[in-house]
Sequence to fold (624 residues):
Amino acid sequence: MIENIYRPFKVIISEIKQLSENVRLFRLKLDREIDYLPAQFFMLGVWGAGEVPISVASTSGRDPYIEFGIRKVGKVTGALHELKAGEAVWMRGPFGNGFDLKTAHGRDIIFVAGGIGILPLRALINHILMERHFFGRLFLIYGSKRPSEMLFSDEIPLWKEAGIDVILTVDIKDGLWRGYTGVVTEHIDRIKTDFREACSYICGPEVMIENTVKELSLRGMPDHLINISLERRMKCGIGKCGQCYHGIEYICINGPVYTYEDIKKRLALYGA
Amino acid sequence: MIERFILDKNDLSYWLRQIRKNASLIAPVKSLVGDVVFESLEQIHEISLDHPLPPPSVKEFLFPQIETMFEYNGDEIKEIIDEEMRVVVGLRSCDASAIKIIDRFFAGETGSDYDMVHPNRKYKDPYYFSRRQNTVFISMGCNVPGAVCFCYNLGAGPFLDSGFDIQLIDLEDRYLVEADSEKGKGLVRRYDYLFRKVETGDLEDRFEALLSSISKFEKRIDLRETGQKIKNSMPDSFWQWVAERCFECGGCVYVCSLCTCFNIVDYNFSNQSGKRCRIWDTCLFKGFTEMAGRVIPQEKKEQRLKRWWFHKILYYPEQFKTFGCVGCGRCTITCPGHIDIATLSEKIMGWR
Fold:
């Protein structure tokens, strides 16, 4: 018998935290050891609603639990939001390649997050802080639509303390907002680094990714040091259902992380 | 090593009758309204081997249009794996060639450098392979290709050299039976009293039949040239022209023996019970790539058509060293907009 890779296992929710109006952080108790990398994803499901790919927000080797940040946008995420602590979700994974950190060794790193794109980057940042000595200076540009949609306001001060240069920006500010306004690309020049030697990790909406890549490229960042985590519709997670295929790639198995070099060569995205 | 035998045509029905004792027998059958479709054979004499290719491909016996994967009832989860023994007879060389390719696809082994990108991520599909392991295909070489066929240009027919379970070649009064896989050989050996040894004359007749068949192809399609042209010099206006002719019916994909994209859907019986199924889906539908928040990477019809074409003509060769087409011509029969692979290839070659 072939192992049924479509069969999910049951996991109990130990805690749910409201991160913003429609984003919740689900903390799950694992009864088995699972190693995963930042930007890898799991298929999370509720029987009767279906399964969706969600990237991990926690850090393997650091956190004794696994966490997923989920925005309520559709049928399955809606069903997941109905769940309470003590109830079960069904999951399988991890799938995908995850962020490659070797090329970042010894370099300054720029993290660029848009919206809930901060979730996989949170996993990455916490991972990098665990092995801080391998890397140069760290910068984070994090853009949200509104201040109320900014996630992890309790963790960002910890990142600052750990020496990360954090730039927060919103599209629409309210009275209390003390940070910057405008899209993330407007703030790239606030980063004082040699872009030709630094590397970057980007996650967010497709338009944001495209513009960020252009701006970094323009400042001389080599294509193979620009790491991008892509989002696609996925039903299987194992390169069969075809929903995520793009160019010669099945993004669920060969991605979701690509360097700009790969994207030009293998995905033919962004007019490349 | 291929084993060859001769089967008297009169003995075919006896052989099939014996086979049916241990497996469900599937063959082309002419329905009351005149359509030829692959069906479970009730009466042996209903088998219809002389008709052209049935419009639906045989992929549905390995990858059904709707397949239940799990049944759930509260926390109780039951895997539904099909283990029925099947023998499918009367498929054509193009179908058998397509199975060779989708075997590699569902095994997660493309057999090219593509595997080397992430060698640890090969996933074998349990649903497909359970059916595949329990199915024997007896394909037929085509002595007279259909008007829409161009398998010869793709190396997918009219006869196959290897990679099949069993291949029958019609030599007028007898069949040359060629068994390649172990499963295929077993099905011949078990009834060895029906078969006799091949003589030189039989192989000469095979060669004659092959030459005669090759000479009868009406369509000559060179997808390599088509590929070069769509890669380098087809303007956006061409894809708009194609899009105007596409009805978005998905017919080409449903009949295609190589299209295997699917969706996974849960159907509820009650509050807590139901089933999780996979159903055929197609990249030509707008909702196929729709993500959370109504983001659709391939929103425009021309983008979706281009993606389908690029996948079949350009990306398949990179992954599988073969085109995503076996030249069966089913899309030519099905497409109401006349933008099927063969017709559009000819159009592309003449486009200025």
Summary: Chain A has six helices and 15 strands. The domain at 9-95 of chain A is CATH 2.40.30.10 (Elongation Factor Tu (Ef-tu); domain 3). The radius of gyration of chain A is 18 Å. The first strand of chain A starts at residue 9 and ends at 20.
